[in-house]
């Protein structure tokens, strides 16, 4: 099984098991719609503060370990040969990714969270060649599309998560067009 298939199997399974466990727990009700599609508008003040704190922690850890994370993502074997503790930094990268996904699930839901992570990175990779350029562009793209999706959602009374994904898709398609134009010239 390829890594993409493995990710799909694990995420679908984890989602199903999580919903089942919660639904079988006495005294708890489930709202499958919230699990699947999230609701940024239903976030409490505590949720927002927790999200801000965890986001800040992720950014600080990323900045502190930027060069190490770059080394293991660019050439893991070379990083290992230079004596870098690759497993430690792979674990850190996994933790940062997991925290980002957990934060996004409350807002976007399990079905749309992958777009929150994947679309900005894919868009940035169409526009920039350097690791730093991709990382910065992906961050800006994520914030821009989230704000655009939220604004359009308010104006048109559409679901926030789906509208954010639509904004991501539009920007991705524009980046693909820019990439094609660059290749022609």
From TrEMBL:
Keyword Membrane set for record: yes
Gene3D superfamilies, A to Z: ABC transporter involved in vitamin B12 uptake, BtuC (1.10.3470.10)
UniProt keyword list: Membrane, Transmembrane, Transmembrane helix
Phosphoprotein keyword on record: no
BP terms from Gene Ontology: response to zinc ion; transmembrane transport
Single GO cellular component term: ATP-binding cassette (ABC) transporter complex
Pfam families named in the record: ABC-3 (PF00950)
Membrane topology: Multi-pass membrane protein
Subcellular location: Membrane
Membrane-spanning parts: 7-28, 48-67, 88-105, 111-128, 135-154, 160-178
Stored SUPFAM superfamilies: ABC transporter involved in vitamin B12 uptake, BtuC (SSF81345)
InterPro entries: ABC_BtuC-like, ABC_TroCD
Similarity comment: Belongs to the ABC-3 integral membrane protein family.
The protein's name in its UniProt record: High-affinity zinc uptake system membrane protein ZnuB
Organism: bioreactor metagenome
């Amino acid at each position: 099984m390829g890594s993409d298939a493995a990710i799909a199997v694990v995420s679908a399974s984890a989602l199903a098991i999580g919903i089942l466990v919660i639904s079988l727990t006495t005294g708890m009700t489930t709202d499958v719609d919230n699990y699947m599609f999230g609701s940024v508008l239903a976030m409490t003040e505590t949720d927002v503060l927790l999200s801000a704190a965890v986001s800040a922690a992720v950014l600080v850890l990323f900045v502190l370990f930027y060069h190490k994370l770059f080394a293991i993502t660019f050439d893991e074997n070379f990083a290992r040969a230079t004596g870098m503790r690759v497993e430690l930094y792979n674990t850190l990268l996994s933790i940062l990714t997991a925290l980002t996904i957990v934060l996004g699930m409350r807002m976007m839901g399990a079905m749309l969270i992958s777009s929150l992570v994947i679309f900005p990175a894919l868009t940035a990779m169409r526009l920039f060649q350097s690791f730093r350029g991709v990382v910065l562009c992906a961050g800006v793209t994520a914030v821009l599309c989230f704000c655009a999706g939220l604004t359009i959602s308010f104006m048109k009374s559409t679901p926030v998560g789906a509208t954010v994904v639509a904004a991501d898709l539009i920007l991705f398609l524009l980046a693909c067009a820019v990439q094609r134009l660059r290749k022609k010239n």
